[in-house]
Amino acid sequence: EVAALAAGVGEAHLAAARRELEVAQAAGEDLAARRAALERARVALAEAQRADPASEVVRAALARVLVEQGQVAELEQARGLRARQREQGRARSAEGRRLLEAGDLDGARRAFEQALGFDGTDDAAQEGLVEVYHRAQELRRREAEAARRAHADELVARALGDHERARALYARGQPPGEVREAYLAALEALRQALFLDPAHAEAAGQLQGVARELSAVLVDQGNPDLAQFVLRLGGVDTTEVVRVELPRDPHLAVVEADQVNVRAAFQGGIQFAPTEAFDKLRAWVRSQSDRYRFVIEVRTEITPRGAQTLLHATGLRIRMEDRVAGTVSAPVDVRFEGGPYLRPVVVTPQGHRVVRAFHHAQGLDAQRHVRQVEGIVQGMLQRAKR
């Protein structure tokens, strides 16, 4: 009877344990409910085992419950770990957003990558990384644009230096090739600047200004065709008439009055050597006033003689320009009496024909005429300043 009673108690506890196992099965992903049901099943099975220690059914059921309890504990531990990782991920994602708004793209990228390392499904971190990528692209674009603008500014500065050098070479009467080379260097630097920064207003304005001035210089040097090409190169509207002043010395300029006719006589292939005869006078004018400029024209007579063309220095003509009033004085002529005074034409090692300066004319007492010009200029300037 005692054995029968124990067996009945064991069966009752076993049945209760089976009902709890069904509850645990039905709980699914609700680990707390599963854990509670499994614990009740274990208690019931423990009671059943005390009532019937020899029951293999109870022992097997108890082993199953213990295994499932271990699985639930592992699942709960894994869920806890994932929850902590998600929390850490959210914290890193929030830090990434803060760094992103502060402009620290590298720091933001690292924070978002760490957030995804904790939780690969973090939408905020994924979106943050995409935003970092786009902002980095925009930053690189702006940096590249700034670098292009800076390089364009450097090229414009270089062009200004080349332009000033070209003007100085022309004012000193240096060979046309050297003058053109300096001007073309300025044009090329400005064209490169506009290639880098098409909206560079200073480069565009300087390009047209240098092109116009070089065009005027080329016409003065007897190269009208090249002058038109330079205007097109500089983007100048050739239908627009703009007065361009040649870059002569602002105080005293010496010009060849008959250079067009001389070039025609020599079919264009000839240059004029500069003169230093009036350097002292130029320095004196510079020390007296910036308002007036003197232009001294060298007069040359062309004399065909058989197959030769001879050039003779015949005199000088002096004019005074008032740059404030915009007026020009009547000319004063200094004639070279007792000529003819041949101006030699020499050939340089580069093959260029060059007319020597007037003060090298054969038989001419150049110093006497230079002193005469100095007296005339000094008198004109003193009268103008009264």
What tags apply to this protein structure?
386 residues; alpha+beta; six-stranded mixed beta sheet; three-stranded mixed beta sheet; 11 helices; rod-shaped
What does this structure look like?
With 386 residues, this protein is an alpha+beta fold. The chain has eleven helices and nine strands. It has helices spanning 2-27, 31-51, 56-101, 105-118, 123-171, 176-196, 201-220, 224-233, 259-265, 279-288, 366-385; strands at 252-256, 271-272, 292-305, 308-322, 327-328, 332-335, 341-342, 345-347, 353-355. The strands form two sheets. Strands 1, 3, 4, 5, 6 and 7 form a six-stranded mixed β-sheet that branches. It has a three-stranded mixed β-sheet with strand order 2-9-8, with no helix packed on it. Strand 3 and strand 4 form a beta hairpin. The longest helix is centred in the middle third of the chain and has 49 residues, at 123-171. It is rod-shaped. The relative contact order is 0.05.
